[in-house]
């Protein structure tokens, strides 16, 4: 993997990359939980560069993962030279007791399932450290999954190195990773208000609607499920285009074909974790 010396990089970010490399070198062997997003792709690229064949990756595939992201994770693993050290395994979050009911601790159940899948693989590979692609910005919202993963032995080397999301994107670009400007991702379960039941059919509705929006040229987006209503979150710059003649009709027709009665546009635009905005109503305190 190329170095960053030939590219103008914030000295603080470069220093934190050095810290990340030192942390990874101290692991001796590592298993990176790899979704194919910006953070996990960057972590895997650096870990593979530092540890070579002592670096493995695991992608847990389930109905809560967008089909396009499954394919992209496979492609990225190959591009990063992982070969058979990229382990794609089945995960069954919907079979975890309580998960489908979508409680406020859903992410904790998900991360516990991920660790339950990854831990036996790590043991077979002789790997002591299972690493998550968590960054320091992730610590500022309601994230029960982070605590659950730590409780099950996960390490978070990018948090230890102090890396922010912006620094990870900048360093990814400097290192030539095509994921540097990839839109923010989250599992499809995050499209449902807490307490709304998650089913394979509803996940398919959301996944196909988001694929259809991407086919129309929209990149940063979410389709939030509200029973008969699909609430669309788009980047602010895309709001005028989606209501343009022709485009609006295609979007509405797509939503109705997928079973939604109404297609609504959220004027606040895209924001990660918007379903957490209702946690005060549910009596759950968000992280400060």
Please describe the topology of this protein:
Layout: H1 11-27, E1 30-33, H2 38-51, E2 55-61, H3 67-79, E3 86-90, H4 106-125, E4 129-131, H5 144-151, H6 157-160, H7 165-174, H8 200-215, E5 221-226, E6 229-234, H9 239-242, H10 247-257, E7 262-265, H11 279-282
Parallel strand pairs: 1-2, 1-4, 2-3, 6-7
Antiparallel strand pairs: 5-6
Helix pairs in contact: 1-2, 4-5
Report on this structure.
By secondary structure, the protein is an alpha/beta fold. It folds into 2 domains: 11-181, Rossmann fold (3-Layer(aba) Sandwich); 188-282. Helices cover 42% and strands 12% of the residues. It contains 11 helices and 7 strands. It has helices at 11-27, 38-51, 67-79, 106-125, 144-151, 157-160, 165-174, 200-215, 239-242, 247-257, 279-282, and strands at 30-33, 55-61, 86-90, 129-131, 221-226, 229-234, 262-265. Strands 3-2-1-4 form a 4-stranded parallel β-sheet, with helices on both faces. The protein has a 3-stranded mixed β-sheet with strand order 5-6-7, with helices on one face. β5 (221-226) and β6 form a beta hairpin. α1 (11-27) crosses α2 (38-51) and α4 runs parallel beside α5 (144-151). The longest helix is centred in the middle third of the chain and has 20 residues, at 106-125. The radius of gyration is 19 Å and the shape is globular. The two termini are 37 Å apart.
